Amino acid sequence: MTYFMFICNKCNKSVGPRISPINVVVEKKMINHKHRSNANPCRVDGVRDATDDPGGMGYQIVREAKYCSRCASVD
Ligand SMILES: [Zn+2]
């Protein structure tokens, strides 16, 4: 068992020990993922094959913060 402590990024209070921080996404951005050919390996009738990843628009996490359970439940 770990006995770590952490400081909440919202209320700046020391939390713990034996309480895990909750990672909250505080900043994200929309990016365009590129098409990738043969990106997903698979087997079709026992023969190795690969399917394409079509790509497309999706979110990417820019910044995460460690919150205590009280601050995480307010958001
Ligand atoms: Zn907090």
Structure description:
The chain has 75 residues and is mainly beta. The chain has one domain. Helices cover 8% and strands 59% of the residues. It is built from 1 helix and 6 strands, in the order E-E-E-E-E-E-H. The protein has a two-stranded antiparallel ribbon. It has a two-stranded antiparallel sheet with strand order 3-6. Strands 4-5 form a two-stranded antiparallel sheet. Strand 1 (6-7) and strand 2 (14-15) form a beta hairpin. The model has no long low-confidence stretch (mean pLDDT 91).
**Unreliable runs:** none
Strand order of the largest sheet: 1-2
Number of E-type strands:
6
Our count of domains comes out at 1
Content-based structural category: mainly beta
In this entry the ligands are: zinc ion
What's the Cα radius of gyration? 20 Å
Distance between the termini: 29 Å
Strand content: over 45%
- Topology as a string of helices (H) and strands (E): EEEEEEH
Number of helices: 1
What is the quaternary state of this protein? single chain
Shape call:
elongated
Task: Please describe the biggest sheet, giving its number of strands, its sense, and whether it closes into a barrel.
Answer: 2 strands, antiparallel
Kindly state the mean pLDDT as a whole number?
91
Estimated helix fraction = under 10%
